[in-house]
Specification:
Blueprint (H helix, E strand, L loop, with lengths): L1 H4 L6 E3 L10 E3 L13 E5 L6 H5 L5 E5 L13 H11 L10 E4 L2 H8 L4 H4 L8 E2 L25 E5 L8 H12 L6 E5 L6 H11 L3 H4 L2 E4 L4 H10 L2 E4 L8 H8 L4 E4 L2 H7 L3 E4 L4 H13 L1 H21 L3 H23 L15
Parallel strand pairs: 1-2, 3-4, 4-5, 5-6, 7-8, 7-10, 8-9, 10-11, 11-12
Helix pairs in contact: 6-12
Length: 363
């Protein structure tokens, strides 16, 4: 563990976690009472959290890591419960001003943190001081996941999407572009991996696919609740990985695709562009024609594929460097520095007092 390797005794706390992990993760908010005055607090902010105000009020050296919250507009009208939750989460962004260091998983996420805040809320958050730190540390997990090799050439023209099946992921745009390509390419296939599988949106996607010409619809498959070894197999088989998402903080599936050496096709969305760099063909306006053309180039044009491979190598190296842990350790040092400065100011602001003497007694 990064913190342990650097001499820190780390304690994890969360309100919700898998039952198998509860033995090593302290429950929130009860864990707040166990924090000592000099303990360093690192708070992950990715949704509305009832403990956030209490954490923000702690006098300790504190770091908040903002993981991005998808805006309400992407859910309102199709999933009002989630829309309400993200609205509440976004309303808590101003609390980040009470932390010594603010980190974010991308520069796009840093910009989203302050977007739309009132002047009072944004006053204590300096966008230029937010530390971008991509979550690349876990990408090597794929090395430890064993899976049988795919039969040679069995899916050499597979387009793969991995992500949640929710409206802002733009999956209908990807399907429309794929269908346009598949009308002239009889061997290309599309695999869509994600969930929830029974949502209205997911069912709507499947209904739309069923209405396509059978020769195209039969080449589109949905995969739900699959194991990591099955997902690894799909990454290995894919020829191209694609996403037409309308909002991302940091595109983890894009990172995974780069790890497997796959060319990318993405919508012109800031978080995905920042994640992919020169490893992707960027579709400015994902009409069926534009998306089909980009997918076709990524599949068929050897020069394009070579250029993307070069960009992929550079981008992976840059991301690995950015997420090697140094930024987190430096953020801890900065938080401690600012905390000590507060302590000195607090000490110096206490006015000296003169001992009170009782008047002499008279007999």
């Amino acid at each position: 563990m990064l913190l342990g390797r650097n001499g820190f005794d780390a304690v994890l706390a969360a309100e919700n976690c898998h039952p198998d992990d509860r033995a090593r993760i302290r429950p929130m908010p009860a864990a707040l009472a166990e924090i000592a005055p000099e303990d360093i607090v690192i708070f992950q902010f990715s949704t509305e959290d009832p403990a956030f105000p209490a954490v923000a009020a702690l006098p300790n050296p504190k770091i908040v890591f903002y993981q991005n919250i998808t805006p309400e507009r992407f859910f309102r009208g199709t999933d009002d419960r989630t829309a309400d939750l993200v609205k509440q989460g976004l309303a808590q962004r101003g609390l980040c001003s009470r932390f010594d260091v603010v980190m974010a998983n991308s520069r796009a996420t840093a910009a989203a943190l302050v977007e739309g805040l009132s002047a009072d809320q944004a006053a204590g958050i300096d966008l230029a001081q937010i530390v971008p730190c991509p979550p690349v540390i876990g990408v090597a997990r794929w090395d430890s996941i064993a899976t049988a090799d795919a039969p040679a050439g069995s899916d050499e023209r597979l387009v793969l999407f991995v992500g949640r099946l929710v409206p802002h992921k733009g999956i209908e745009d990807l399907i429309a572009g794929f269908a346009r390509l598949a009308s002239t390419d009889k061997h290309v296939r599309l695999a869509i991996v994600g969930g929830p599988s029974q949502s209205d949106y997911a069912q709507g996607l499947k209904h739309g696919v069923a209405e396509l010409e059978h020769g195209i619809a039969s080449r589109i498959t949905f995969h739900h609740d699959i194991s990591e070894d099955d997902l690894k197999r799909l990454y290995q088989q894919a020829a191209v990985c694609a996403s037409m998402s309308r909002h991302e903080g940091f595109g983890v599936p894009l990172l995974d695709a780069m790890f497997f050496g796959k060319p990318l096709v993405i919508r012109a969305e800031p978080g995905m562009i920042e994640t992919a760099g020169d490893a992707a063909i960027v579709v400015a306006e994902p009409t069926p024609e534009a998306t089909a053309a980009a997918l076709g180039a990524a599949l068929n044009d050897e020069q394009v594929r070579a250029n993307l491979a070069g960009g992929r190598a550079r981008q992976l190296e840059e991301l690995r460097s950015a997420a090697d842990g140094r930024r987190i350790i430096n953020a801890i040092a900065e938080a401690q520095k600012r905390w000590r400065a507060r302590q000195r100011r607090s000490h110096n602001s206490v006015a000296p007092t003169t001992p009170r003497m009782n008047p002499p007694r008279h007999s």
